[in-house]
Specification:
Elements (H helix, E strand, L loop, with lengths): L8 E5 L7 E5 H14 L4 H10 L19 E2 L7 H16 L4 H12 L14 H10 L3 E4 L6 E6 L2 H4 L5 H4 L2 H11 L3 E9 L7 H4 L6 E6 L6 E10 L2 E8 L4 E4 L4 H6 L4 E9 L1
Helix pairs in contact: 1-3, 2-3, 3-4
Length: 277
């Protein structure tokens, strides 16, 4: 009960049989409905940033999706890491555009988080490269390439399969580890373009980045593709990030420019840009 300490948890089962059992609290469902009511009429870019900013101050907590023995669709607006923050915001944007409600949000979140919207640990889109491809196929996002994408990353995804002891669901489950490894296989020896970090002090026109674009930070760590994600926001001509920050311990609209944030981080090479369609 670590995840729901001091809070009464509810188990919601959508009437649509394609939606997994959904774990959330009353506080979560109320918060989602409040945001949907506020966001439904917002414009594309501004709306995304406004929704993202509604989570500013929420505590950063890692591994909130791993709190149940069996995979469930977990909705947690009280604790977030960088990926759950982005996924929750994207699902809210999709739901607001159709003036949907909480069950619609649950359905959208499952679509965004899981391969073929199938709720299981091995079908969860653990790597951002997989997340991008799957959500592109669903027509939800599109990875953007501009003239500023002058650097190339050689993808060789294998971190999960080579570190199974780091994942509770894998270390004693060889079949799950094998399934994860099979999904890594197509992402080896693949070239991906990105914007190198020394160019991030450029203008909106030079970078081709819009408010509300998802920015994925490319890493030099072997076996990984991306180590952090957030949303682009231009402030007085300078690119900033709205993100769940482990360093600050909460979701923030970062007062430091993305260029300065990235500048001295050795393993942060640059960014990929993903646009919500």
């Amino acid at each position: 009960m670590r995840l729901f300490a001091s809070i009464i948890a509810a188990l919601f089962i959508c009437s649509n049989s394609s939606v997994a059992q959904t774990v959330y609290t009353r506080q979560d469902s109320i918060r989602i409905e409040e945001i949907l009511q506020t966001a439904a009429s917002e414009k594309q870019g501004t709306g995304i940033c406004r929704i993202a900013r509604m989570f500013v101050g929420v505590p950063y907590t890692a591994s909130t999706l791993d709190s149940t023995d069996c995979e469930r669709l977990i909705i947690n607006t009280r604790q977030m890491d960088c990926t759950t923050f982005v996924e929750t915001t994207v699902a809210l944007v999709l739901t607001a555009r159709t003036k949907g409600d909480f069950p619609d949000f649950c359905n959208n979140l499952q679509r965004v988080r899981y391969r073929n919207a199938q709720c299981s640990y091995t079908e969860r889109l653990h790597y951002i490269s997989q997340w991008i491809d799957d959500n592109e196929q669903k027509g939800i996002v599109l990875e953007i390439a501009t003239a500023a994408h002058t650097a190339t990353q050689k993808l060789n995804l294998n971190f999960m399969s080579t570190h199974p002891q780091s994942y509770r669901q894998l270390k004693e489950n060889p079949s799950a580890a094998a399934a994860v490894a099979a999904y890594e296989e197509p992402y080896r020896n693949i070239d991906v373009k990105y914007i190198p970090k020394h160019l991030l002090n450029g203008t909106r026109e030079q970078l081709g980045i819009e408010d509300g674009d998802i920015l994925a930070i490319v890493t030099a760590i072997e076996g990984l593709d991306v180590t952090h994600v957030g949303f682009a926001e231009w402030i007085e001509g300078t690119l900033h990030l709205i993100h769940a920050s482990s360093g600050k311990g909460k979701v923030i609209a970062d007062p430091v420019s993305l260029y300065q944030y990235m500048k001295n981080k050795k393993n942060n090479l640059g960014i990929r840009v993903i646009r919500i369609l």
